[in-house]
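Residues determine shape. We examine one folded chain.
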Amino acid sequence: MSILLTGATGFIGSSVLPRLLEEGHSVTALVRDEEKAARVEAAGATALIGDASDAELVERAARESDGVIHLASAKDVDPVFVDAVLRGLEGSGKPFVHTGGIWSYGSNPDITEDSPSAPPALTAWRRATEERVLAAEGIRTAVVVPAVVYGHGAGIANVLVDAPRGSGVAPAIRLVGDGEQHWTTVHVDDLAALYVLVFENGDAGAVYLGASGANPTVRELGEAAASAAGVSGGVEPESADETRARLGADFADALFLDQQARGTKARIDLGWEPNGPTLLDELVSGSYAPAAVGAGTAD
């Protein structure tokens, strides 16, 4: 199938693109400039240089495709992009896989696709667009909701890896708040496999959580990072206000959410099998460990 893909050069897209190609699909990647065009073409895709907020371009590209996967979801882009895709695919029955975000569920010890929405300010904009996607008729729409994505030395895990060291007698990695909150997580390569499964076999109007079932606390993650880096003081909590000042209020408030999820629906309905290393393993001896970072695996 010929797929229109956004975000092909981003963190998630860099795993989704090769997975699609390995599965035998052809991909047209919508990119912003020549440098990104060269990257996706080197990977085996066709580049379409343009802007995701160019409604005419997007509508035409969607109509000419066999379906769309939208990874480059953004507040200032989605309203225009989504409406253009829906016009381009109208009545075709073709798939359109949109990207949501786990933070939109707020703090919850057992998040499922049916859990109520309780987004922090950072992601409050997502709901209206997702509802528009899921309500579309004549198109096989679905929303993939990634957990906290990690892998290959990139992503939010670096908030801990690169955290400032405390100023006590022994240096310590600063946590995000007190560190007692859980983060629900997924390896980026496992998430890429889920996007392909949803594109190929997802139900119309369905939501699928991309969550591995591993839900460590931030303290556990910080302790793993500290141990790997040989930080003698371990970890050090900081107040919510200190974290907000360091990371920005909206981002910090999202990271404070206490979330756990199992991702059961995708396993049962689509046969998804997340089997990548856990984030704890990656911090101790994988792509975030100091030796791996020094060897250049984190770029």
Notes: The two ends are 31 Å apart (CA to CA). The longest helix spans residues 188-201.
